[in-house]
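Researcher: Let's do a round of design. I'm pasting the structure tokens now; please hold your answer until I've finished.
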């Protein structure tokens, strides 16, 4: 496996949701805890951001322009990195302590986003679907930390994880109706190995999982077996995304730490990394709503 490169050092508190836009040749990503939506140019190393007034968990590039996003306060559209935020709906008005965490578009251009319960006192995190008509419906969940959402290349399998429970699920997905059925356990990681955070599926259908607390990213076969491992110079990788001119660059976001011994061991915690791979990723669908 190629060498991991530090693309942007110590750039975030909680870097997450990297998304490559091939038309703009930019890596968009968020700093959840700082409430920032970033745009990174890997050619120049330049990075800019939009400052929001709340946490942003996830987003997708919108076909009409701008973005759709999941914030603490619900679903919104964002006109550009200059701003222009329009609320759509908050499916968890009764749970102000929860926020959106992980999300992406399905092959039909719906935006799916999941919430987390920071108290971990109830399995009250769920994935919701924001449809093309901007209606919202509950999809799947009963999680502590909704994470790891990704689709197989044919769109017929939906993967998601519940990070603190160390488990990734696989479900049958109907792209026409957006329905989920037949949820089963895909892989469960042993305690101490790392917890399945954000994920991406490559063009061969393998699931790449960022293992929070494990300092590694693993490539998992459709049969649920680990076949490759990338060691990351940060204890808490949070998400991966394929991008670059040839779609074979894996970008890795990570979380910073305020625990001094961990920061001393991993001084690049909270950085954005990249590594070139012998496999390509899937181009992210844009939100069609
Ligand atoms: O990075 C994320 O997706 C979450 O926002 C993080 O907070 C992380 O996944 C979470 O802290 C892991 S766990 O719930 O503590 O296991």
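Researcher: That's everything. Go ahead.
Model: Designed sequence:
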């Amino acid at each position: 496996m190629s060498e991991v490169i530090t693309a942007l050092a110590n750039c975030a508190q909680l870097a997450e949701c990297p998304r490559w836009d091939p038309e703009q040749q930019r890596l968009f990503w968020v700093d959840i805890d700082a409430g920032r939506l970033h745009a990174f140019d890997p050619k120049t190393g330049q990075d800019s951001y939009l400052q929001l007034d709340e946490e942003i968990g996830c987003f997708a590039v919108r076909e009409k322009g701008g973005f759709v996003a999941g914030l603490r306060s619900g679903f919104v559209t964002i006109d550009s990195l200059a701003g222009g935020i329009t609320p759509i709906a908050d499916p968890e008005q009764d749970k102000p302590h929860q926020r959106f965490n992980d999300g992406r578009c399905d092959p039909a251009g719906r935006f799916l986003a999941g919430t987390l319960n920071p108290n971990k006192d109830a399995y009250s995190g769920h994935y919701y679907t924001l449809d093309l008509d901007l209606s919202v419906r509950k999809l799947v969940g009963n999680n502590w930390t909704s994470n790891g959402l990704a689709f197989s290349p044919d769109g017929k399998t939906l993967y998601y994880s519940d990070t603190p429970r160390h488990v990734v699920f696989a479900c049958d997905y109907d792209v026409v109706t957006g329905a989920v059925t037949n949820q089963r356990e895909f892989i469960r990681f042993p305690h101490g190995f790392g917890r399945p955070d954000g994920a991406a599926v490559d063009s061969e259908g393998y699931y790449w999982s960022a293992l929070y607390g494990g300092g590694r990213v693993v490539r998992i076969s459709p049969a649920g077996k680990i076949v490759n491992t990338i060691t990351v110079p940060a204890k808490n990788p949070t998400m991966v995304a394929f991008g670059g001119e040839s779609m074979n660059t894996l970008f890795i976001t990570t979380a910073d730490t305020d625990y001094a011994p961990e920061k001393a061991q991993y001084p690049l915690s909270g950085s954005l990394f990249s590594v070139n791979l012998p496999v390509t990723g899937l181009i992210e669908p844009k939100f069609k709503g």
